[in-house]
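Sanity check

After download, print the first record. It should look like this:
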Amino acid sequence: MTCNSRVIRTFLHWSPDALDLPLSNGLRIQILPTIHDLSRARKHQFAAFVASQALLVVWDDDPCHLIDRAKAIESELMQLVWRSPNPDDQNEKHDAEIDHESGRAKPEARPVHLQNTVLVSITLLVVVLSLGAAWRQLAIAISVDGEYARLGLIALAPLQIFFTLFFAQVIVGCLAQILGPVRQLSTNSKFYSARPPPRLQTPTLPHVTIQCPVYKEGLHAVIMPTVKSIKQAMSTYELQGGSANMFVNDDGLQLLPEAERRARIDFYADNSIGWVARPRHGHDGFLRRGKFKKASNMNFALMVSCRVEDKLQQLARSPDWSQHDEAQAYEQALNQVLDEHGRAWADGNIRVGDYILLIDSDTRVPADCLLDAVSEMEQSPDVGIMQFSSGVMQVVHTYFENGITFFTNLIYSAIRYTVANGDVAPFVGHNAMLRWSAIQQVSYRDDDDYDKFWSESHVSEDFDMSLRLQCSGYIIRLAAWAGDGFKEGVSLTVYDELARWEKYAYGCNELLFHPIRTWLWRGPFTPLFRRFLFSNIRFTSKVTVISYIGTYYAIGAAWIMTAANYFLMGWYNGYLDKYYVDSWQVWFSIILVFNGLGNVALALMRYRLGQQSLLRAFFENLKWTFLLALFLGGLSLHVSQALLAHMFEIDMTWGATSKEAEFSNFFIEVPKVLNKFKFSMIFALAFIVIMVVLAIAPFVPHDWRITDFVAILPMATVSASHFLLPLALNPALMTFSW
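Expected structure tokens:
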């Protein structure tokens, strides 16, 4: 739609040579010489002034928004005309200071908080005291009977530390949340950003590429809403003077039926989205490497982009080289790369800018976030990745999704608190701004003979990337200034959430240990883990990472140790060494710390931060206690399966996480539950029968009976949790519709 008014003509007359027109809200609208130049306009500004005809041209994906958009721009122009400059407003601007020697933005002074160092030190003290108390019992027992053989139990100390480190850290962390300071959560530090940085005010802003790997997600239900959210952010950034492009790595395009494939390609073309699609696995000998294909998908797409860039760098550009010439050269380079490769599909702008905003296919981003993000990255050249704290985007609103939403928010609250205390920020693999030059710096080559950036030999490619960057001198920073503006999807079903935990457990074992078969010539620990241990990463951060990894092994060992404890406490209670801590004491401690102290600490911290009232926060914590206890209690067998699968080189694969609601009912779910959980349910039922028989069966001899409460309760909890996990946490089982 075109607009012609006296205000527009006046502004264009005042600035005949301007390239853009600044508005009062800080946005800038492009000025094109003629109407024919619209083809090279920045599409996501959704507006352009045409100087030769003194017109305003506006466009939009929705025709109903055209008039409102034109009115808003004219209103901004009128305010710019009639508003007199206010000195107070000028003083309130927070623009980035520029270093006149280097021309770069001056970095903000950011302190290194040491609260986390103190808390980790106290955690290690608690662990050492616990070991000391246990060894004291050994000394007392030896002084009584003189049996020095029990000193062999000291060899279990590394395993005990590995299992109990996270438990001790939770105790110390919860007490710190209740009694310690929380001001650090509202201030900027080396690894944490609570407030956005001063915005850049340079003539040109860095180019941002939004990279989005997708698979077979629904176009209308998943991809379109994500693209709509991204386009709003791109539009705002382009109006602020920046430039951005969206780069989709479509791993499902060559696998879809023709109609769905054509719909995707048309959608990408309509929305100026660049995309790359690789062949199916095994097609003409092509291999989609990796157990989890996201890393190899992104590597392939970036390889095509880099080859196009290499061809463009070989061009000799004349002084009168125009944007039109650049576009033609790009098209030729892209076609040459596709012809040379032969199997890749690609179209649109697949060039990578200064920074990459990595998202998932079910992500939402704030409309005004890119300028703040690039401003912080420009002012902090040591930041390799800026991870955004995220909220949750719910889809189906079932009680299971609501519970996982609460759990995800809890995890992000804990991450924010830990990082604000001075710990290194984690990288979770999405909703993060990546420095492209840093990613290129840590690239590697393998048998495919091209530069790769993401590890295809690890399920946890994000942890591998984080470690390589930190070993190269970069840091990872957590940005919380966007609040819950960044949103991510959570698991919609218990199957997906269970698969997520299995992948995490498999990935942790993959990072730590070689398969047992190779220990003789390769050793137990992987080069990646050894490099992590001896890297320049802070010692306290290493302790935190190791304690996190240890939780998966503790969960995986729970069913084995509880089963052994059932028979030991049932048949030998009173004959065991005091060194032995039975499952009843462990179970009671876990309930006391996680369900008691943890809920109180989280509620008090949210109250102290002004996020919720105390009673509401405490009630919300209690509301989800039983759901999380049931879910975490039923994880053990599945987590140990994933750990052992890697240890013994048993193939284990996972499909893509469901991003949209799928119809299901009782009759569909029952066969699915029986097929997926048959072994865990057999295990649970078998132990329930064993417990009943050994407790009340008349044919069981008296000495073989197990009736002690302290022996039965932990085993009953584990068995019931494993049996009820796929039933009680499966809302579709309660659906009787067709």
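If your output differs, re-run the checksum step. Summary of this record's structure: Residues 2-86 form one domain.
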